[in-house]
Amino acid sequence: MAVSLSYDLLLLLVISSLDWSSTPGSAFLTDHNRMTSSAPVEPHFTECMSRDLETFRCWWSPGTFHNLSSPEELRVFYLKRNSPSSEWKECPEYSHLNRECFFDANHTSIWIPYCLQLRGQNNITYFNEDDCFSVENIVRPDPPVSLNWTLLIVSPSGLSYDVMVSWEPPPSADVSTGWMRIEYEIQYRERNATTWEALETQPHTQQTIYGLQAGTEYEVHIRTKMKGFPKFGDFSDSIFVKVTEIPLRESAVLLTLVLTFGVAGILILIMLIVVSHQQRLMMILLPPVPAPKIKGIDSELLKKGKLEELDFILNGGGLGGLPTYISDYYQDEPWVEFIEVDEEDADCGEKEDQKSSDTQRLLGLPQRSVGCFSADSHPDDDSGRASCYDTDLSEQDTHLLAASLLPGQPEDEEAFLHPDEKAPASETNKSPLIQTESEGKPTWINTDLYAQVSNVMPSGGVVLSPGQQLRIQENTEKESQKKGTLGEDTSKLNKPQFQLLVVDPDGSGYTSEITARQISTPPSSLVPGEGYQTIYPQPMETKPAAPSEPNQSPYILPDSPQTRLFAPVADYTVVQELDTHQSLLLNLPTQQPPPPCLPQHPLKAPVAIGYVTPDLLGNLSS
Amino acid sequence: LKREIKKIISAVWVGIICLVFSSRLSTMKAASICPNDQTGCHLLPLANLFDRVIQHSARMHGISDDLHSEFELYFLPSKNQIGRVSRNCHTSTILTPNGKENAQRIAREELAEIILKLLVAWRDPLWHFHQSMSQHDEFTNFSSNKSLEMSDMVHELRKGVLKVVEKMQMLGIISNSVGDTGSPEALLTSDSAEWRFMKDYDLLYCFRRDSNKIQNYLKILKCRIVPKHGC
């Protein structure tokens, strides 16, 4: 069977190829375009069509044969091939005007092939086998009727809208009995457009057209076809659809759109900025907490507990040590603020009113000065007053001494005056002192308001040795009291107070052990510009003898340095100047330390004024 | 814990499905009870059956039409085939009404019987056609699938029409003379040798025509029996 089938297929191919070239007649069943040729065309059928699957019509054309004088000469015959013994019958209804042959319902049979032929005079037959057909294959239904449209919905922007088009099935088609099943195809276009838009074929009698633009007019028409068969009927009459625009809604929608997009864009920009400048913003919003950095003290060193180094650093290690140290450690941190010792209390206002000094505050001494300090201003010793600079201290502070520490607790009035064994000379000497003091800014050069720290108390207080001057002063005071003029003088001398001199010309507040050693070394090693010079009580010898010496020899006799070294150095004087012989000129030539004091204070080395290091403490106490 | 959750979920699913099914069943039962129209109320399920069957036949006709046009593309037959073919369709022996009036005039039982005869007549030829289609390499898969679908549809449609006939007989609309599946088959099998010699194209042409007949007859039958339900 397969072999026979293949043979059949081959035959079919061959035959079809042959027939294709030689088919002269109409092929109206398959809607082939008729070839127009110059050759004479015989009479033929142009089209056969059925509208309702119950009747059908056929049209013919006489062709170009000119021997046909009248149209009535051609006759239509048909054959129904439902039985082998069928014969040709003539057309039941002619319409010669239209050259049409109409087959009514009685003569129409569905599903049965019809063959038509034209016969002329003399029984000339023009027959083409291609003109055989079945009626169901030539059905072209009528177009629908009563088209109308309704507006379904308009878009929020007002620009587009949807339309529902509805219609009625063609009256000729018998849809109600189900004899014909019709499908509809809608086509629409803009008023002035050339091409039609077609929607999908569907069997219902209504359909929605989506997305029509407002303001433009549309043309809509519909055509029908039988379900399952390919041929479409004619188009219906067109209807016109139009919806006018609503501008207000459009603008409102546009506005909202613009607003939302603008806000979104701004938000994105802000986000980008925040992300890109995160570091800076973090710095601005959450600045780093500055840790306290004290000038000259590195917290690292403190942590390590290396006080020696700290001392060294503070004292300059050489006088230029600190600044470099500072620069080394805190070069990279510009925001590091050094806490500077501020001896000038803002409340005070006038410098002269300051009575207490840093030392007093450090030591926690009762404030002698009046009005400057409140209880809470300097609560503890560590309130940033760890360092006292020469620059910070004003000059009048040098007058203040820790008088209360002195083992006699001399009153304020008993300031160290210029040592004057001579009672009358003391007065005169006082006067220059007073004068200098009253000058307003007595320099520390003119005063001997230095005390030697003899011992450090466990409570933190520093014990000063009474000093030669004090003894002398006591003596002189007694003498002056007799005179009665001391009170005046002493009252005037209220201002200066005993004070631990915490002076460093270079800014370091402490004399380290090294400098102390230096001080303790023979005076020849005294370097001008050093902090303190221990003035050895050279005048010790001369004091009791010559209080009436008019001239205060400013010399330090370098003869007996040894004795001086081991003598309890209670007095300090300031080097006034260097004379030509490279000797130091001091202000206090005649001073006689009280002998009984000597054994009491077998100091071997001068003590650094100010804070006492534990090493020095050992020296002191020994 | 996970297993327990899964069990619970599966149980819930089963419960939901059961509920759905029961609701569907109840609705189906409810559908048989008509609220408004009591005269034609009992015919509603019949109308539904008819609708389903008509849809089925429409689909069958569509497939046959596709296959036929495909064959026309591959093998352009000459037009004189049409005249020749009409004599060769093996179902031409079955007397069928050739027009709407004729179809409306004959008895319902006869119409139903004709439909069944046609369906029976095409069962074997389509099956063999599918076999021959699948063997040839030049046919695409699309075509072979369609031929298989076509032969299956004939079976399904026949069963559906039988059910409709049963329903009608149950309702007393038609007499019990219809439905003797044995006898039509017996009639045809003697003549069935004819279709073996048919060519594929002719077979397709004939089936296309007959499926259209079946579709039309079913529609007419429905509108004659249950006219109120969508005609």
Automatic annotation (TrEMBL), chain A:
Main location: membrane
Residue span(s) of domain Fibronectin type-III: 143-247
GO cellular component: external side of plasma membrane
A GO molecular function held by the record: cytokine receptor activity
Transmembrane segments: 252-275
UniProt keyword Amino-acid biosynthesis, yes or no: no
Protein keywords: Glycoprotein, Membrane, Receptor, Signal, Transmembrane, Transmembrane helix
InterPro entries on file: FN3_dom, FN3_sf, GHBP, Growth/epo_recpt_lig-bind, Ig-like_fold
Signal peptide (UniProt feature, chain positions): 1-27
Record field: compositional bias (Basic and acidic residues): 474-492
Region annotation (Disordered) ranges: 473-493, 540-559
Topological category with respect to the lipid bilayer: Single-pass type I membrane protein
Cellular location(s): Membrane
PANTHER family: CYTOKINE RECEPTOR (PTHR23037), INTERLEUKIN 5 RECEPTOR SUBUNIT ALPHA (PTHR23037:SF46)
Name of the protein in its database record: Growth hormone receptor a
Species of origin: Nothobranchius furzeri
Native organism taxonomy: Eukaryota, Metazoa, Chordata, Craniata, Vertebrata
Gene name tied to this protein: GHRA
From TrEMBL, chain B:
Localization, UniProt: Secreted
PROSITE patterns given in the database record: SOMATOTROPIN_1, SOMATOTROPIN_2
Keywords for this protein: Disulfide bond, Hormone, Secreted
Molecular function via GO: hormone activity
Listed GO CC annotations: extracellular space
Principal subcellular localisation of the protein: secreted
Family annotation (InterPro entries): 4_helix_cytokine-like_core, Somatotropin/Prolactin, Somatotropin_CS
GO annotation, biological process: positive regulation of receptor signaling pathway via JAK-STAT; response to nutrient levels
Signal sequence bounds: none
Record-linked Gene3D superfamilies: 1.20.1250.10
Similarity annotation: Belongs to the somatotropin/prolactin family.
Full protein name: Prolactin 2
Source organism of this protein record: Nothobranchius furzeri (Turquoise killifish)
